[in-house]
Design a protein that fits this description.
Layout (H helix, E strand, L loop, with lengths): L2 E8 L2 H11 L8 H21 L14 E6 L4 E6 L6 H9 L6 H6 L5 H11 L10 E9 L8 E6 L4 E7 L5 E8 L9 H11 L7 E4 L5 E3 L16 H12 L7 E7 L5 E7 L16 E5 L2 E4 L14 E6 L8 H5 L2 H24 L1 H21 L4 H7 L3 E2 L9 H6 L7 E6 L3 H5 L5 H6 L4 E3 L4 H7 L2 E2 L2 E5 L27 H12 L5 E4 L8 E4 L7 H9 L10 E4 L4 H7 L4 H18 L7 H17 L1
Parallel strand pairs: 2-8, 12-14, 16-17, 16-19, 20-22
Antiparallel strand pairs: 1-6, 2-3, 3-7, 4-5, 4-7, 5-6, 8-9, 10-11, 11-14, 12-13, 15-17, 18-19, 21-22
Helix pairs in contact: 9-10, 9-11, 10-11, 10-15, 19-20
């Protein structure tokens, strides 16, 4: 065998961290190394099938696709070989020497030292190749990409420490061979029956033969080698569904729920879709890959077919196998295909129906789902107008009545107090900030429940979800607030009404001090404890939304808040009798700045606030 250009290269820092975790027995169940390597081999064969649709010469005269597993007891090695697409030298270095992911840093930040939790994270990260070092102290990989010359083979080897070697070699056959040189104490994996049992447990669903030598030395197919989704549902066990999910999702944990449906009629397709139990750490990365694989008549077409489900369901994993699409379908064709639109619409409804069923029949599971994916599902209210009502029923919120994320809009409506015809909400940076919002004071006194919206997307959500089952959603921090007759207190005045005409001169005096910082100053009846608050105009951007847009670098239309004062608060009463224009201006500005802080905002001049506050405190001390 001729070799050229041998190099010793260092692993990327993140890869070294992963290898250290693997070598030090991160997983108690080491069997999964075989599942992960077989899964990689299966993916490589799928990619060859796909590319060969356009160029049959890639088969190089060998279209008998399979995975071979072999044991050499004397050499103490396990070999997993496929005749799939293979890799070039550059691809080997890119795929094994480095981890190209924008979420890599966040992944390592989330490692806890807890084996079970960290195992789940690594499963989400999709780095199954490195699991070989759980049982091997040296791994050799030989590969050649289909369609390249036999002189373009690549040999890669590493002991799982800081570096690896890579060289160009002569390799007649295409595909990839991985040789594991077992560690001392791992001899259990040199037993043929042990490996066959692992394959049948974890990889029975792989759609191509996994071959091992039989008792007579002849090749024997170990797995069923049939597409799981094509089998009748009643013939599939929960364990088989779970293992198939782990294969397609590269996850180490069983899914939360699944759908297996066959649609017949004008457009025929089979969908086997899974809702994961945990959110991947890169769920919000723009460059992350989608999780649904597209097959046509059981022939793999493409990974990450984002056209098959909307973006807000990007957490779903699984396969869709269509009967009527052309085998040479491309991403460009998918974008213009009515058939794909039909599949997308049907699959979306199936997933939303599954979530609705979980919410109704298995609330604990749904709570798990919501904690992991609720923020993403909220995106659907904005994106998917056709399913907005369906999604609205799935939303869950914290409220002033309940701390958990378990209150649906239907639950809220059922608990509305006498005379209430609106769904009230407040937006803030956090649950704590929302609960302490001065806007909630009158609602607490009247016993009116308010939704606490603290996710960044919530401002956009309420912009697009203006009502639920005929009840308008209303911000407690915008416009006038008429609570007459709600929760009793029929005599309660409307917010903004003044009981005493002499307050008008006082509010006009405050407005003169604040100038163009405010739209107006008025007496408020929404406050019972705080001296003042800021209120957005009925048709203006909410104060919280305006702050979010500015933080994102967007230009926002100029808007001024209404400054409302509590006529019953001692500070306001004292200020009303203030004769000194200078002290009146200082107290008015101080109350305004406090209102900004109470909204979670930032002061333009913090030093000026402190200076003014200290001056007023000293004045009080000397009084």
């Amino acid at each position: 065998m001729t070799t050229t250009e041998k190099q010793t290269l260092g692993f990327q820092t993140e890869v070294r961290q992963l290898l250290d975790l693997m070598i030090h027995s991160l997983y108690s169940d080491k069997d999964i190394f075989l599942r992960e390597l077989i899964s990689n081999a299966s993916d490589a064969v799928d990619k060859l099938r796909f590319e060969a649709l356009r160029d049959e010469s890639l088969y190089e005269g060998d279209s008998d696709l399979k995975i071979r597993v072999q044991i050499d007891k004397e050499a103490r090695t396990i070999t997993i070989a496929d005749n799939g697409i293979g890799m070039t030298r550059d691809e080997v270095i890119e795929n094994i020497g480095t981890i190209a992911s924008s979420g890599t840093k966040r992944f390592f930040e989330r490692l806890t030292g807890d084996e079970a939790k960290d195992a789940r994270l690594i499963g989400q990260f999709g780095v199954g190749f490195y699991s070989a070092f759980m049982v091997a102290d040296r791994v050799t990989l030989l590969t050649r990409r289909a369609g390249t010359a036999s002189t373009q083979g690549v040999a890669w080897e590493s002991a799982g420490t800081g570096d690896y070697t890579v060289e160009t070699v002569e390799r007649p056959e295409r595909g990839t061979t991985v040789v594991l040189h077992l560690r001392e104490g791992e001899d259990e994996f040199l037993d043929d029956q042990r490996l066959k049992a692992i394959i049948r447990r974890y990889s029975d669903h792989i759609t191509l033969p996994i071959v091992m030598p039989g008792a007579d030395g002849a090749p024997e197919t170990v797995n069923k080698a049939a597409a799981l989704w094509a089998r009748p549902r009643q013939d599939i066990t929960e364990l088989e569904y779970d293992e198939f999910y782990k294969h397609v999702a590269h996850d180490f944990e069983a899914p939360l729920a699944h759908i297996h449906s066959r649609v017949e009629g004008k457009q025929e397709y089979t969908a086997l879709l899974f809702v994961p139990r945990r959110a991947p750490f890169d769920l919000f990365d723009r460059d992350r890959r989608y999780g649904v694989k597209l097959y046509v008549r059981r022939v793999f077409i493409m990974d990450d077919a984002e056209q098959l489900l909307p973006n807000y369901l990007r957490f779903v994993r699984g396969v869709i196998d269509a009967a009527d699409l052309p085998l040479n379908v491309s991403r460009e064709i998918l974008q213009k295909s009515r058939d794909i639109d039909t599949i997308r619409s049907g699959a979306t409804r199936k997933v939303l129906d599954l979530l609705a069923e979980l919410a109704e029949k298995e609330p604990e599971k749904y709570r798990t789902f919501w904690a992991e994916f609720g923020v993403v599902l909220k995106e659907g209210v904005v994106e998917d107008t056709g399913n907005r009502e369906r999604i609205a029923k799935l939303l869950r919120f914290q409220t002033t009545a309940e701390a958990g994320d378990g209150v649906s809009l239907a639950d809220y409506v059922a608990r509305m107090v006498e005379g209430q015809d609106k769904i009230y909400y407040v937006t803030a940076e956090s649950a704590a900030a929302a609960r302490h919002s001065p806007h909630l004071e009158i609602f607490r006194r009247k016993g009116i429940e308010v939704l606490l919206l603290t996710d960044r997307i919530d401002e956009w959500l309420v912009t697009h979800l203006s009502e639920f089952e005929g009840r308008a959603l209303r911000s407690v921090a915008k416009g006038d607030l008429d609570l007459k007759g709600v929760g009793g207190d029929a005599d309660e005045p409307k917010v903004g009404e003044t009981e005493e005409p002499e307050w008008k001169a006082f509010t006009e005096r405050m407005a003169k001090v604040l100038g163009d910082k405010v739209k107006e100053v008025r007496v408020s009846h929404r406050l019972t404890e705080s001296p003042a608050c800021l209120v957005a105009g009925e048709h203006d951007l909410g104060i919280h939304l305006e702050r979010l847009l500015k933080a994102a670098g967007q230009n926002t239309p100029a808007s001024r808040p209404v400054f409302e004062i509590n006529p019953g608060h001692p500070l306001v009463t004292r200020l009303r009798g203030e004769s000194s224009d200078e002290r009146f201006a200082d107290w008015t500005t101080l109350l305004f700045d406090q209102a900004i802080l109470a909204e979670g905002g930032a002061l333009e001049d913090g030093a000026d606030f402190v200076h003014r506050l200290n001056g007023l405190l000293l004045g009080l001390q000397g009084a």
